[in-house]
Amino acid sequence: MASISNLASSLSSLSFSSQVSQRPNTISFPRANSVFALPAKSARRASLSITATVAAPPEEEEEIIELKKYVKSRLPGGFAAQKIIGTGRRKCAIARVVLQEGTGKVIINYRDAKEYLQGNPLWLQYVKVPLVTLGYENSYDIFVKAHGGGLSGQAQAITLGVARALLKVSADHRSPLKKEGLLTRDARVVERKKAGLKKARKAPQFSKR
Fold it and tell me: Cα dihedral angle (164, 86, 145, 125), rounded to 10 degrees?
């Protein structure tokens, strides 16, 4: 009994103090020198937002700016004002091609063709096939604006655009270009997926039960 009475007396000697303000939006806790107030709603809704921007290297930006100035100086009035122009299409890609007498330089979307086509030798070959067929690989510069599709589709669209532009140089070019099939628009596209099938024609595995 003595231990119980001692415990009761020790508990009565302890005192807990907490103070809640009358305002519903703030809770205050007493301290030795100051009162720290924390808004309840803002504490719950506190969030951290981080934004990051990736800038292009200054060297690449300078090269693009220089090529833009070069293209504008070579094509006064823009692409639409030029005479030797052709439009090529392949899959979802569209390419507007302008030919000018030069040394065989190829610029696609204000970038060097080798850089734009990622150095792929097949895609680079597509671009120059019409010129090589006629023996003009070092006689004309090619300026291209391409959009849509992938790089493979754009490269093949440029082929058709270059071939059509060469027809405006001379009507005699039609026969050799047509013989190589360079004036035919390739209409092949990916077949659409069908309902109930995994792909255009691939069916799910058969299960008897």
Answer: 10
Helix axes 151-169, 121-134, angle to 10 degrees: 10
Structure token digits, residue 185: 């628009």
Going by C-beta distance under 8 Å and a sequence separation of 6 or more, which residues neighbour residue 177? 130, 133, 134, 163, 166, 167, 183
CA atoms of 68 and 151, how far apart (whole Å) = 21
Residue 91 has a CB neighbour count (10 Å cut-off) of 18
pLDDT bucket at 41, cuts 50 / 70 / 90? low
Distance separating alpha carbons of residues 3 and 10, to the nearest angstrom: 11
pLDDT(186) > 80: yes
Determine the straight-line distance between the first and last CA of the chain, rounded to whole angstroms.
78
DSSP β-bridge partners for residue 108: 111, 144
User: Between these two residues, 24 and 107, which has the higher pLDDT value?
Assistant: 107
Separation between Cα atoms, residue 89 and residue 10, nearest integer Å? 92
In the structure encoding, which two tokens stand for residue 84, read together?
């030797």
Cα angle value 27/31/36 (rounded, 5°): 40
- Between 64 and 19, residue with greater pLDDT: 64
The model's confidence at residue 58, banded by pLDDT at 50, 70 and 90, is confident
